[in-house]
Amino acid sequence: MARDRRKPTTRLTHLGRDPKRFAGAVNPPVFHASTILSPDLAGYQAGGQRRFEKGATVYGRFGTPTQHALQDALTDLEGGADTLLFPSGLAAITTALMTVLASGDHVLVADSAYRPTRSLCDGLLRRFGVETTYFDPTLDGDALMGLIRPETKAILLESPGSMTFEVQDVPALAAAAKSKGLAVLMDNTWATPLFFRPLEHGVDLSIQAATKYIVGHADAMLGAVTANDEWASALRKTTFELGMAAAPDDAYLGMRGLRTLDVRLRRHWQNALELAAWLQARDEVASVLYPPLEQHPQHGLWKRDFDGASGLFGVVLSHPYSDAAVASMCDGYELFGIGASWGGFESLVIAGRPHRTATAWKAAAPVLRFHAGLEDAGDLIADLEAGFQRLNAATDE
Ligand SMILES: *Cc1c(COP(=O)(O)O)cnc(C)c1O
């Protein structure tokens, strides 16, 4: 189905499906292929060019109907021209940046960006002659203009930011960047295209760590980049030059996850709201970093631009609790697993200190990051309450 005006939840159910093509099967099957045979030599010789056509099966690396189905579905949801798939979210970020940058260029990156994005900028990109400036994620368009140099070619947004959840004024930052000819990239993993569509707000390349909510079951690694008309063919070319490809089984799991994205996200959102409200009232908590809360500094931007919220939020503790006390709280949780990644059906927690270079993170106390899973919210709150008892017991000793 080409872009239609039906609601995203209806489109999630039908996108990327073509039962008539697959013996009536409701879901596009998993095609494992490297070699794709051509009917004749002329067809083979034309294949090199056909890899730039959407949906062409030319060679396994360029995708089979399994990957193409997910690409089509994400292109529709994001409102873009084309989507490419990657073996991880980080590979998607890497390829998007390498699509728009060359040696000698300068890139602006939000100071609250996902930590491995920073490692990429400070490592490989620097080695290839690209300089990065990190900027305060709460900057407005005018202030951003002051950071743009003649050699600045791109800006990478991430909203809300990793660990600290600042919401960016995406339309204002994108407009300022576009006025100077920059390519605008955004990591949209937190909201997914269901709750925020970057391209509608002036972004050129929207990036998803599909590993998180799109796969949704903590069992596959997958990335995606959706480009507008301006960048679609450059993205396809860079992806193929780098040899990036997502495995058919993982693309299938991404497609399967997409079907239930709407119901899952709404439950994650509702559970996160309940946990956040309860946590906010606790003495052990200084603030909860969750954009749907009215107390969140950029709540207004979230309300203006987003259609919903996911289940990931931060908590700043109210005292500089010792690492041992925080560990005793986290280690004893029965429902919150300790682990990176998120977006699966289960609840998670990690603790750390946000990494900043352009701005200062002032709170001395540790920051916890919770993922509200699909469990019963009351059961999750009971687990949190027992955790605070451990935290206080370890602090009073
Ligand atoms: C996890 C994550 C990524 C990277 O995704 P992987 O699939 O783990 O490589 C990128 N951006 C954000 C915001 C993430 O949380």
Automatic annotation (TrEMBL):
Query: Which E.C. number(s) belong to this protein?
Result: 4.4.1.8
SUPFAM superfamilies in the record: PLP-dependent transferases (SSF53383)
Report keywords, A-Z: Lyase, Pyridoxal phosphate
Give residue numbers for the modification (N6-(pyridoxal phosphate)lysine).
K212
Entry's Gene Ontology molecular function annotations: cysteine-S-conjugate beta-lyase activity; pyridoxal phosphate binding
Keyword Transferase on this protein? Answer: no
Q: Which GO terms describe its biological process?
A: L-cysteine catabolic process to pyruvate; transsulfuration
Supply the Pfam families for this chain. Answer: Cys_Met_Meta_PP
Kindly state which reaction or reactions the protein catalyses. L,L-cystathionine + H2O = L-homocysteine + pyruvate + NH4(+)
Question: InterPro entries under this entry?
Answer: Cys/Met-Metab_PyrdxlP-dep_enz (IPR000277), Cys_b_lyase_bac (IPR006233), PyrdxlP-dep_Trfase (IPR015424), PyrdxlP-dep_Trfase_major (IPR015421), PyrdxlP-dep_Trfase_small (IPR015422)
Cofactor dependence is on:
pyridoxal 5'-phosphate
Among Gene3D superfamilies, the record links this protein to:
Aspartate Aminotransferase, domain 1 (3.90.1150.10), Type I PLP-dependent aspartate aminotransferase-like (Major domain) (3.40.640.10)
Q: Where are the transmembrane segments?
A: none
Q: Family, per the entry? A: Belongs to the trans-sulfuration enzymes family.
Protein name listed in UniProt? Cystathionine beta-lyase
Q: Which organism is it from?
A: Ferruginivarius sediminum
